[in-house]
Design a protein that fits this description.
By secondary structure, this protein is an alpha+beta fold. The chain has two domains: about 140 residues, Sandwich (Jelly Rolls), CATH 2.60.120; about 80 residues, Arc Repressor Mutant, subunit A (Orthogonal Bundle), CATH 1.10.10. About 40% of the residues lie in helices and about 20% in strands. The protein has nine helices and eleven strands. The chain starts with a helix and ends with a helix.
Length: about 230
Amino acid sequence: MPKRAQTHKTVSRHGWLSYTPPPFRQAVLDRCKLETFSGGATIFSVGDPPGGMYGLAAGSFAISIAPGERGPYVAHFAWPGTWFGEAAALTEQPRKISLAVSRDSEVLHLPLPAIREIVAADPGAWRFFGLAAVAHNDVAVGIADDLLIRDHVKRSVAVLLRLGGCRYRTLEDARPIEVDVSQEDFAAMTNTARTTAGSVLRKLEADGGVEVSYRRVRILAPDSLRAMLEP
């Protein structure tokens, strides 16, 4: 299957576009440009002018935030099928997050003029673009809920599962899930000291739930990790 067709298939089966009507989905895909980024590349940064949307077809997004006095710092990773950039497109205000790739990635870019073109042809299409914002709000609520877990081990497990895209269910292919997170970033995400974060990861590794390497954690047993969160 040609690369462009494969990317279209991926984002049509997973994430935002999979929840939209086929005519709208096709209108988006027809206007997308396929771009490739090397690991560590920045797509846009906090404060950048408004622009279009970016959908991940292969690889991993790293999302950084800087809402207050601190930051920017990595707060979340996202997997194929995830799109970002709708907030700036909806409001035409500067970017509120930074978007990078944590490994070599293939990304579909829907430019801002293309979004305007879709909406000009069908004003009701704004509702479908809004679905992406709703999905991100759901993730943000889940993040807040997990960070309220008092036990630091359970809180760390919940965060790790979220970063792997398997917080509430195991992915269909059941392969080990590689999260491109350093221990320093993981400590910040779990609101723990770096030594504490490292200790938790070593314990999970000893129990067979994960495998830890340089700037990467491989989730081996998501179901077992999720069972640790049960009351």
